Structure formats: structure tokens, C-alpha cells
Amino acid sequence: MQINLISVGNRMPGWVQQGYAEYAKRLPRECELVLKEIAPGKRTKNSDVARIVKEEGERMIAAIPQSTHIVTLDIPGKSWTTPELAQAMQRWLESGQHVSLLIGGPEGLADSVKQLARESWSLSALTFPHPLVRIVVAEQLYRAWSLLHNHPYHR
């Protein structure tokens, strides 16, 4: 299974790239984590934010591979414990489909993207900086995998 992390934002600081890469490389080929960055729309004081979010959504949809299980990361989504995430990962592995996890920009995900989702995952009721979400998601996926395989990392 390939897990595509499709995220609005590019040109991340080194600490973000390093943190994400650390956990992504720990995952085995059976759960390969692949980052696909979506260029954010240019935001200015007078920007049409609704149009920007819609265009970001269109670029995200274009980046989603065919026949993939789509999961949005969104505050109103389901909050999973680590064991629940591990169960979701087990389900994804057993389905034989690739998975696409979608992270929106500063204003969130476009409605068109949300409508494609089969699941929605909330990391927290808190709002996190989007670069940090990449690291948290990668770490939590590795933690869920380690739980499924009785690896000592989860302890």
C-alpha cells in the first residue's frame, strides 16, 4: 500500500522536511509514505479566499491517484486514538487500495475535496500550523504501524 500525503504548501523550512523525512523513511515498503505538495494560492490583503481555496482543491484533486481511498484531515473529522488509527491502517492494508491523506491550506479544504472523502480524520480540536501537521501525521502513521507489528516504538 502506498500512502499519499497530499498537502497544500511547498518550500517548507528545513526542520519540517527533516522531521517528515525521519518518520517517512521508517515506514516499510508495505506502507510507503509519499508526499505530494500542492502549490498554495497567493494570498494578499484583498485576495478572493474562496477562489483560492477552490483552485487549491482542484490542484489537490488532480494529484490524487486513481482508485485510492481518500481521507481528509479536518477538524470536524473523527478523532482517533492510536489504536483506532492502527485499526484504520490495518483496514487500509487489507483493502489492497492505496490511501490518500489530504491536508488543506490555511483556510482548510475545498468543499469539492471534502465530498470525495470516504473518511475524515481530526488530529485535534486545536488548529496546528500546516507544516507541523505533516510531521505529526508521518509520526502517527509510523506509531500505528509499530503498534500493528509489536515494535517497541509505541511503548
From TrEMBL:
GO terms for molecular function: rRNA (pseudouridine-N3-)-methyltransferase activity. Its EC number is 2.1.1.177. It catalyses: pseudouridine(1915) in 23S rRNA + S-adenosyl-L-methionine = N(3)-methylpseudouridine(1915) in 23S rRNA + S-adenosyl-L-homocysteine + H(+). S-adenosyl-L-methionine binds at L73, G104, L123, S124, A125, L126, T127, F128. Homodimer. HAMAP family: 23SrRNA_methyltr_H. This is Ribosomal RNA large subunit methyltransferase H. It comes from Candidatus Methylobacter titanis.
